[in-house]
Amino acid sequence: MLGMYPTFYVPYIGSAWVMGIIGVIHVVASHTSVGAAFLFAVLETKAYRDDQPEIMGFIKRYGVFLLVFSYIIGSITGPGIWYAITVASPRGVSGLIHNFVWVWAAEWVYFTVEVIGVYALVYLIGKVDRLTHLKLTWSFALASWATMLLIVGILSFMMWPGNEGWYLTGSTNDAFYNINFFAHLGVRTGSMFVMAAVVGFMVAAGIKDEDLKRGVIRVIAPIGLLGGLFSVMMFLYYLQTLPTNAKVMLQAYLIPAYANTMIGIFVATTAYLVFVWWKPHRLKLYIAVPMFLAIAVLGVWPEERMRESMRKPYVAGQYIYSNQVIARDVPGKSIRGEVDLIAEKGLLKLHPFIPDRLREVTDDNRLEVGELLAKIACANCHALEPGAPLRSIPDKLYGSPDKDMIAAFLRGPLKHGAAPYMPRIDLPDQEVDAIAAYLASVNAGTLEKSAASHTSAPITALIEREGK
Amino acid sequence: MDIGTVMNVMRDPAGIPAHPELFRILMIVTWVFHIAFVTLTLGAASLAIYAFWRRDTGPYWTRLSIAMTKVAKVGVSLLIVLGVAPLLFTQVIYDPQWYASNVLSAGWAIGFIFTLIIAYCLWFAFYFSNKEGAKRHIGIFAVIALLLFLLDGLIMHALSYQALLPGQWMDWYAPDGVVDTRGAYLHAIQWPRYFFIISLSVPAIGLYLLAYDDYLKSRPDLPEGYLGFVRPLGRKLGASGSLFALILFVWWQFDNPSDSNLIVQPGGWAVGAALLVLWFEVTFFADKLHGYLLLCGGLVVLLLLAIWREVVRATYLSAYGYSIVDQKINADWPSLALFFLTLAGVGGLVGGFYLSLLYRAGRVQGVYQADRSIAAMGTGAVAVLAVWIAVFFLYGIAIFIENTFAY
User: Fold this and answer.
1) How is chain A split into domains, by residue range?
2) Looking at the complex, does the CB of residue A157 fall below 8 Å from at least one CB of chain B?
3) Which of A155, B22, B202, B288 has its CA 20 to 30 A from that of A255?
């Protein structure tokens, strides 16, 4: 038996997009928060050194905005990502937790300090002496960045450890300081300044005092520009630290799909930052808000989507496939790969959450078994509906209703792991036959027509019951 | 398949990086702080709404409503962040149960996030509007927010409770043998347990008001009579809330399966006894004991509850042959040191600096001038963070270089 979990399936967008949507919201909110913390520290240092207490008014204003934006949305979507990956990839998140629990626990210490700190920072402006408040602000900035330092190690391990070290030792050190880590950290550290500057512009746009507005913008705009430049340079370094499967995915699918958008958003953001730096008085809310939304959505979504896609077919450390199967041995943790065992015995025998009536494939339940197996083995990365946005399998098969052709793909490239960004899925013949029969039926359109009036149970189960 | 065997196979193959009892202790202790802020927030939110609609009946209700709105606002932030730690440690030692339960109600687990965001935004809307002379209808924001907070509590309760009932997982996942992958239902709710934990919000806010009174005694700028209004209210809520919670607790005790023998275990009755002691203290000594001491009495109740909650979980799961003590251990000392040093250095010094500063600044009228100890803590906070970051990079670069040449 394998330690697999029940499956959660979201039609059309898959659980992957649910995770992606929550993730993008969180990245925007959290990066803004960390970047803004440094902007506050720089601005407050200027206010202290040059005796410009009016700058503190801007910090308070931005801080209150941050409380709502980052510490409601950001702090809830943080655990939200956990919930989303828990239901989408329970074994994936479990693998990460069991490798990095102490790192996550250290990050939690920082989170707690950060949440107390943001309230202290905002509400103690003008209530404590200026030097003490400056110490508070700098410590808040450093603590905020520390949360990023800790989470990036885990995120970059999800891509891959980069060498055999961790597989042999099982040490968190080797997993955390992986080949991808410093490059990834650089990308996020640079981009947090861009995000904080862009959000800061929204706050600055509402300042009535033109001198204050100009003074603040002329501090945060160059920081945003330098952050952006640094982020781009580190992104180019980051690309050199990727595994082969990621590079193939990047060249074959992601660059054609996202390159123009990403270059466009880079040019637009740079032009925006330069323009506002040059003409601060021209910054208005009706410019700042749409620019923020454009950069947040068009900039962050492709970046997060690319990172998630490039990781395929793995979900963590190149040892857990996205479909929850352990892909290889990890001697340092006494972990055994499961692919060969599945090839020998099949998912129907080994998966604990298969109803007894479906453990044997029969003429009556073939389509139902095929649907369930497709959800278990494929649906973490693929939608099962034609025309669906999440790498629809029917679309990938060009809508072919030819069961033999589909089975040939399953018994060929997929069985041998020959597609570089696909897991090796090697199943016994009867399971291949069931999946092929199901996908052929989807493509033939016979399932949807028969079950159009039913929504609760699996479509195939309804058809087969009606058939009886 | 035998679900007990299944659960043991579902444990993460990587094992756990320290002794399971260490995780269990951390899970229990961190949950105490989480649930303290859950109950305080729900109590503060309820009182803020009640006071808001009683503004016309007395001079202090408006001030109290505004104050409690702020308490709930900060409370939600803290309950979220303090909830991360017990959730983390639960996933280490009870991973099969937690993940299975979440997947089986996945729609609700995701819904929890969005409803919490909506609720918190609504609470902020109430907070920004709740001023002198505020319009009555803004109270609707607060009511909807509170109802959503209660719903979120119910979702968390169900996810935790479903984790204790592995014998029913397959029936929920595949009723009549037909698999349902939508995660569309909450499958099990133990109402007495849910109501009991929610009811603790009444004594929680009562005890908070008693401590609030003692904290603000040094503030001459408060209207005369305000604290004299707050303290009796705190006493009333603390005493009646303790008794009310005790009744619900007894209901929960008798609602557990009779073959579990939980009813005869002393741990459960210790929670009941602590509630009774709390009622006695608040009823007869509220004016003699310092509010902070009474607040500590409340924390003792929560600590006993946290331990009892773990006893209940272990008892339910032992029936299936599941125990955390036989976990595979792959010890990882460097990352363990990272956590405990961060907890002591950053949590202690930086967190201590923030809390001390907030505490002292709140007790003075006008600008607080840091004394030597607070000033030193501030310098220490920046220094400890700078050192932590420097060590983080130096240590990381050394490992990075070593691995580059070794593999």
Assistant:
1) 14-321, 349-467
2) no
3) A155
